[in-house]
Automatic annotation (TrEMBL):
<comment type="pathway">
    <text>Carbohydrate biosynthesis; gluconeogenesis.</text>
</comment>
<keyword id="KW-0324">Glycolysis</keyword>
<feature type="binding site">
    <location>
        <begin position="242"/>
        <end position="243"/>
    </location>
    <ligand>
        <name>substrate</name>
    </ligand>
</feature>
<dbReference type="GO" id="GO:0019563">
    <property type="term" value="P:glycerol catabolic process"/>
</dbReference>
<feature type="active site" description="Electrophile">
    <location>
        <position position="103"/>
    </location>
</feature>
<feature type="binding site">
    <location>
        <begin position="11"/>
        <end position="13"/>
    </location>
    <ligand>
        <name>substrate</name>
    </ligand>
</feature>
<protein>
    <recommendedName>
        <fullName>Triosephosphate isomerase</fullName>
        <ecNumber>5.3.1.1</ecNumber>
    </recommendedName>
</protein>
<dbReference type="GO" id="GO:0046166">
    <property type="term" value="P:glyceraldehyde-3-phosphate biosynthetic process"/>
</dbReference>
<dbReference type="InterPro" id="IPR035990">
    <property type="entry name" value="TIM_sf"/>
</dbReference>
<dbReference type="InterPro" id="IPR020861">
    <property type="entry name" value="Triosephosphate_isomerase_AS"/>
</dbReference>
<comment type="pathway">
    <text>Carbohydrate degradation; glycolysis; D-glyceraldehyde 3-phosphate from glycerone phosphate: step 1/1.</text>
</comment>
<comment type="function">
    <text>Involved in the gluconeogenesis. Catalyzes stereospecifically the conversion of dihydroxyacetone phosphate (DHAP) to D-glyceraldehyde-3-phosphate (G3P).</text>
</comment>
<keyword id="KW-0312">Gluconeogenesis</keyword>
<comment type="similarity">
    <text>Belongs to the triosephosphate isomerase family.</text>
</comment>
<dbReference type="InterPro" id="IPR000652">
    <property type="entry name" value="Triosephosphate_isomerase"/>
</dbReference>
<keyword id="KW-0413">Isomerase</keyword>
<dbReference type="Pfam" id="PF00121">
    <property type="entry name" value="TIM"/>
</dbReference>
Length: 259
């Protein structure tokens, strides 16, 4: 068993207004408390839309919750005339500890490149937060059998020039696009194949200490019914959960399945 602390991360995507966010975080805290959740054995993270972050911060601070929270994206700019952008400083001020970048939905709908994703990860790390760097292949790539090379290419392009020490501080989330929101989960073997290959690539590029320290998550229709098997895989350290993170009970249940 590794000494990496598992991470159960709920990406709310573009769902929930601030009242619904309030309700979900309180319900999640209660469900985790009822289950006797041990946060030192599995970190629990919620990733609301920007408009809900202040609400989540208020509840977490008022109730001294151990739930962490973060953002779904960030700007590579510091401040100024960048309409619609949100800076790392704005997020740290709100107490965010994680930021997602490179989600396939942003790559597809906002044309985000590996280089931009890498620059966002750099910015987040420099601001003292933890980047969650997403990668994953489309169905055509999977069918062509080139998914491992494709995913490693995304990661290597984003992390080009990084030091081993910095790579050890990030989280990588492998999310096969064909499994996102479709109900079609990669099998535990499929997920392990790619997550294992990511770890071996980190070993080759950055050395043993980094490969053994970097947390790798699986994402794509993860839910209470399949999380146990996914978490039992040697190179899967948690999950980036979409739909199932919008229900307090199911997400709390998933956080309880650390290996
Ligand atoms: O960021 C989360 C992933 O896109 C997975 O979403 P999903 O669990 O709804 O398939």
């Amino acid at each position: 068993m590794s000494n990496r602390t598992p991470l159960m991360a709920g990406n709310w995507k573009m769902n929930l207004d601030h009242l619904e966010a309030n309700h979900l975080v309180q319900g999640l805290a209660m469900a985790l408390s009822d289950a006797g959740h041990d946060y030192s054995k599995c970190e629990v993270l919620v990733i609301p839309p920007f408009t809900d972050i202040r609400t989540v911060q208020t509840i977490v601070e008022a109730d001294s919750l151990d739930i962490k929270y973060g953002a779904q994206d960030v700007s590579i700019h510091d401040n100024g005339a960048y309409t619609g952008e949100i800076s790392t400083a704005m997020l740290t001020k709100l107490g965010c500890s994680y930021v997602v970048m490179g989600h396939s939905e942003r790559r597809e709908y906002h044309n985000e490149s590996d280089e931009l994703v890498g620059a966002k990860a750099r910015k987040v790390l420099d601001a003292g937060m933890t980047p969650i760097l997403c990668c994953g292949e489309a169905l055509e790539v999977r069918k062509a059998g080139t998914h491992v090379d494709f995913v490693l290419g995304q990661i290597r392009a984003a992390l080009a020039g990084w030091s081993a020490e910095d790579v050890a501080k990030i989280v990588i989330a492998y999310e096969p696009i064909w499994a996102i929101g479709t109900g079609e989960t990669a099998t535990a073997d499929d997920a392990q194949e790619v997550c294992g290959a990511i770890r071996e690539a980190l070993r080759a590029d950055f050395g043993d200490a980094t490969a053994d320290a970097t947390r790798i998550l699986y994402g794509g229709s993860a839910k209470p019914a399949n999380i146990k098997e996914l978490m039992a895989q040697p190179d899967i350290d948690g999950a980036l959960v979409g739909g199932a993170s919008l229900k307090a009970d199911s997400f709390a249940q998933m956080a309880g399945f650390y290996a």
